[in-house]
Amino acid sequence: MPAVTGAVEGQGSAMGLKGLLKRSAFAALAAGALSLSVVAITPSASGASTKASSSSGGTATMALDENLAGFNINTSAASEFVLQEIMNMVWPQAFIVNNKLQPVMNNQLLESAVQTSSSPQTVVYTLNPKAVWSDGTPITADDFIYNWQAQSGNTAYTDVGGKPYDDASTSGYNQIQSVVGSNPSGSAACAPGSTADRNVGLCPNGRTITVTFKPSFTDWRSIFTDIVPAHIARTVGWNTGFVGPTQTISGSWYTISSYNENQSLVLTRNPTYWGTPGKLDKIVFQFFSDDSQLVPALQNKEIDIFNPSTVNLSIVQTANQVPNTTKVTLPGLEFEHFDFNQADPYLAKLQVREAIAHGVNRQAIITRTVGEISKGITPLGSRMLVSTQAGYKGTPYAYNPSQSANLLKELGFKKVNGYYEPNYGPQSGQPLTFTIQSTSGNSIRAQTEELFQAQMKAIGIKINIQNYDANTFFGTNLPTGVFQIAEFAWVTTPFVSGNQPIYCSYTSTQCAENWDHYANSQVDSLMASGSAAPSTTQEITDYNKADAILWQDMVTLPLYQKPQFWAWSNNLKGVLPNTSSVGVTWNAEDWTVSG
Amino acid sequence: MFAYVIRRLLISIVVLFFATIFVFVLVASSGNPLALLNANPHIPHATIVARENLLHLNDPLWQRYWIWLNGAIHGNLGTSISGQDVASEAISHLFVTLRMVIVATVIAIFVAIFMGVLAAVRQGKVTDHAITVTNFVLLATPIFVLGLALKEFVAIPINQHLNKIIFYTDGEQSPTLSGSFFSRLPDYAAHTALPVITLVLISYASWAIYQRSSMIETLDADHVRLARAKGLSQRRVLIRHVLRNALIPVTTVVALDFAAVLGGAIITEIVFGWQGLGQWYLNGVLTLDTNVMLAYLLITATFVIGFNLLADILYGVLDPRIRYA
């Protein structure tokens, strides 16, 4: 059984990744950097710590086990981990989080990115003058201006048709005061800009971009990832315009050459790429609706690599039987949790949420589920950081069924035939019943739900289970708030500020991923001050304080840090599992195939 | 005969018409496709109203049915919740499924007839027992088990032995496939083989059992004894006098089962990652997409009615004693 500490099977050596993993309900908070210093890397932008030695060419096929809901990864609807794994190679990233979880400047897109002033915080990006989109349009300050405006949360900026921007996250962008271009290529003068494009006087054709933050944003390296082509977005629309390869042009190593919905997506080398080209001719992403098909497909050489959204014992055991493959299990940045929707008249009551939380024996759930895959997993004590991150401060929350009963009695609920009956609302005089929902086809989640159902029955709460396909669950049910209790995973980034849109008050338009209808001004203020803190230490302290309040308010119940599993053919070289939300394709431009 | 076919066609249209009413009422009552949007306080009311108007959700049921029927008659099956044209989506997914189901059905018919005849001719002997036991084992095997077993114990070992992919385990075709139709054929075949074998094994077994029973019954018929008494060869007796008559009940079963195979291919599609009609329908059910569900049920109902009619016509072709009044 692989240990949580990251044993690499098949290659016979420990990779020693310090780490975290990813996936599932990808929070769109992708990318970013841990406020660490910039790591210079050459010649590849991503700076893989080991480079592939095989020759260029060939095709690698990667399995993805969720379908796409769109191509603009920065929107809440399309913000999925699987899309990030594709877009890592398609849209330009100012910084890339490498497998050591360090934010690394993309030195093929940028010549430099330097904080030139701390008050007000000012960062100057200098673009590579050769950087162009695959349609030939230069990548300029205009792209930075547009991406800032679209994700700023400022309602003065609107999408085509005057619609508000649908953002997966406004974190960081909402602290930008201005984005101004300068130094256009060659001897050209600054373009005047246009009112329609909202860039008058901002030198949109500039190759140097000056970004001023107010208040300061500690994790400034976490933004300007997945830069959307402004000239396309202004035409087709940010929210729903990116529906296929035609609109989703490339500004990076690879371009999308074909996409068959729910079947496959093919990346080919971007012919207009100005930097070191990707080593593979093609990267094919093949979509699977059922994780159980992944191992046979690897065994049959139909795919070269997979990373299931949720690892289960069966996948690990069967994958271990496949010869000539490498298998890696690591603890990740992803944690499973229960969400309580406070729009529900009963879950709106703190006592009910606390009663449920006290009634959940998290260790028992772990033992019966992921504990079989990886030993030593314990209940997670934070929503902001996972146990393998510096600054993690675990808050214990006791399993205490008798406390659950007391809390429900406090509310005046009476126990009849084993279930508590509320004395108000639509369930008055009926057993207190909730529906838990999650993604279908996930055996660990199904098992967790069943255990949760049994544990809740023991404390007098009736639980129904209703699961949906990932598209419906993540694309519709969660964003539209159509759930009572939901089980899924957040994929955190190394940047703690990425948690802001999840837990800040839902009444703010900037909190796109607070689907639980939770609001607390104290939490808002702590996260805001943390994001503007002068140091990462202070930032983490503030976020840990906010987390303490979230425990008091029992907004969500973290369950455990999920183990992450990768398996790939030994013919595929250069793979370095990355436990952050950018996924294993963070260095796919360096992958090669042999044999 | 011609008049009979026309009359049956007209009756079929009436049956189909009532089937659509039944299905429409059933589906329209199954839930509000905009329920999720309605429950979201962030969605502007105007957006919801626009979607309701697009889907005619505020119109009376009969009016909605009429709009749908009028559109369906003209080949317009409306749009899905995600805004896709249902008719073109349905046709695209139908072709994916038909590619699998037609090939499987044709092969299964031949296998079923051969196995049924062989078992009947060798009645009570080892061959008969072996075929019968095999048939019942296959009948009792869940289709997903068979599919997974074929992947694991047949396809992968063969591919590994030959160090070449002869059988693909996922998808309808390779993502990077290009070139002329004929150059793509081997890839199609390699992707289609396993799902087709799965469907053949599941479908042929029951048909072979029918064929065997029918053959045994016909072998004892007076006209067969007379044919033998006339000194006709065993081969001629079997083919001309037994098989032709014994095919009649099997024909009916096969015709009726085709629609079931079409609908039942959903599990095969999931196991082998095919984006066919079944997967499309399943997604429609999960998203309460009325138009998608209606289109699927309309297609399957059409197939059921069509193949019922075909069975009746084949009856007349295979048995001249049957006359249509």
- The gyration radius over C-alpha positions of chain A equals 24 Å
Please, what is the oligomeric state?
heterodimer
Poorly predicted tracts of residues of chain B:
39-43
Structural class given helices, strands, pairing of chain B?
A: mainly alpha
Number of strands of chain B: 0
Share of β-strand residues of chain B: under 5%
Count, helices of chain A: 13
Fraction in helix of chain A: 10-25%
- Could you report the average pLDDT of chain A, rounded to the nearest whole number? 86
The dominant shape of chain B is: globular
Strand content of chain A: 15-25%
Distance between the termini of chain B: 8 Å
What helical percentage do the residues of chain B reach?
Answer: over 70%
Radius of gyration of chain B (Å): 24 Å
Largest interface: A-B, 35 and 32 residues
Structural class of chain A, by secondary structure, is alpha+beta
Q: What's the N-to-C terminus distance of chain A? A: 30 Å
Instruction: Give the number of DSSP strands of chain A.
Output: 21
> What shape does the CA trace of chain A take?
globular
Topology:
The complex is a heterodimer of chains A (595) and B (325).
Chain A: E1 8-9, E2 59-64, H1 81-87, E3 95-97, E4 103-105, E5 110-118, E6 121-127, H2 141-150, E7 176-184, E8 206-213, H3 230-236, E9 254-260, E10 264-269, E11 282-287, H4 294-299, E12 305-306, H5 313-320, E13 325-340, H6 350-359, H7 362-368, H8 401-410, E14 414-416, E15 419-421, E16 433-437, H9 443-458, E17 462-465, H10 470-477, E18 485-491, H11 500-503, H12 521-531, H13 536-553, E19 556-569, E20 572-573, E21 592-593
Parallel strand pairs in A: 2-11, 2-12, 16-17, 16-18
Antiparallel strand pairs in A: 1-13, 3-4, 5-6, 6-8, 7-8, 9-10, 10-11, 12-19, 13-18, 13-19, 14-15, 20-21
Helix pairs in contact in A: 6-8, 12-13
Chain B: H1 2-28, H2 35-38, H3 45-55, H4 61-73, H5 86-121, H6 126-140, H7 143-162, H8 181-219, H9 222-229, H10 234-271, H11 277-286, H12 290-318
Helix pairs in contact in B: 1-12, 5-6, 5-8, 5-10, 6-8, 7-8, 8-10, 9-10, 10-11, 10-12, 11-12
